[in-house]
Design a protein that fits this description.
single chain, about 140 residues, alpha+beta, tt1808, chain A, 8 strands, about 25% helix, about 35% strand
C-alpha cells in the first residue's frame, strides 16, 4: 500500500476490495458494496466499509447477514470499532475482516478476538487477499 492521506487511502482500499470481489462475481456469485447501510436484527443501522453477499444482489437496505464484512481501519475509536464488530458477530456474519491501512496489517475478528492474519481467505474457494493485493 502506498502513502496517501488517511481518507483517500481508506476509500482506495475499499474500492480495491470491491474490485477483487467483483472479479469473482461470475464464477462465485459475489456481490460487493462499499459503505453499505445494513439493518441489524435489532433494527439498528450499521454501515459496513465493504460487505460481500453471495448469489443475490443485496436489497437497498439488507436485513440478512452478508458472507463477509470488511472494516478498513482509519481513525476509528476503539470502543466504536469493538461495538461494530460485536454487532456483526452477533448478527452471525461468518467472516469479519479488518484492514489496517496505517500498519499495513490484515486481521480477522473471530470468537470475540482480533487475530493477525497474513491473508484473508474463504474456505470454499481458492482465494486470498494479501496486503500487497491492496496496492
Amino acid at each position: 500500500m502506498t502513502e496517501h492521506p488517511p481518507a483517500l487511502e481508506h476509500r482506495r482500499v475499499q474500492e480495491r476490495l470491491v474490485e477483487i470481489f467483483d472479479a469473482l462475481a461470475t464464477s462465485h456469485g459475489f456481490q460487493a458494496s462499499a459503505n453499505l447501510r445494513i439493518k441489524m436484527a435489532d433494527g439498528r443501522i450499521r454501515v459496513a466499509d465493504v460487505a460481500v453477499f453471495r448469489d443475490a444482489p443485496p436489497d437497498p437496505l439488507p436485513t440478512k447477514p452478508p458472507l463477509v464484512v470488511i472494516d478498513v481501519l482509519s481513525d476509528d475509536r476503539w470502543n466504536e470499532l469493538i461495538e461494530r464488530l460485536h454487532d456483526f458477530q452477533e448478527w452471525r456474519v461468518p467472516n469479519i475482516w479488518l484492514v489496517d491501512t496505517n500498519r499495513r496489517e490484515l486481521m480477522i475478528y473471530r470468537g470475540w478476538s482480533i487475530v493477525p492474519a497474513k491473508s484473508l481467505t474463504l474456505p470454499f474457494i481458492p482465494f486470498e487477499i494479501r496486503c500487497s493485493d491492496l496496492g
